Amino acid sequence: MAKKKAPAKKVAKKPAVKKPTAKSKVKLLSGGNPQIAKGDGDAPVQAYIKATPGWKQNIVKRVDAIVTKTLPEVKKAVKWNSPFYGIEGQGWFLSMHGFNKYVKLGFFKGIHLTPPLPGISKQKEVRYLDIKEGELTSAMEKQLAKWVRQAAIIPGWLG
Description:
Blueprint: E1 39-40, H1 42-51, H2 54-70, E2 75-79, E3 82-87, E4 91-98, E5 103-107, E6 119-120, E7 127-131, H3 138-152
Antiparallel strand pairs: 1-2, 2-3, 3-4, 4-5, 5-7, 6-7
Helix pairs in contact: 1-2, 2-3
């Protein structure tokens, strides 16, 4: 008498991991700051800009344009869900991060910039500029370009 084979066990398939696409939603962290994968170059920064919600998107887009126009050779990256700007071989001089009521620009050696930036930090040399909705005027854009030029010639943060 031949033995009957036991029916094969069904193996549950693992759900397919979806790769992010251009149309997929980006997770927003506290303050509405987009969660963007760490990466070097303009592409991750543009992804950050595109994923930034509401009125803050216009601010981060304009800041990126000011930095790029002022320093065409600027190095860009996204680190810790924030765009970073720097000069090759000199380090990073600027980052930005979205919060509920403003976009914070952080100049890593901001203590050396004139006129002084209004926001101080626990870090001795770091200075901040918080930009709220409607505050990025043409006068502020001109001043921001001056700070970017100054910051780019100071050896920056090498992190």
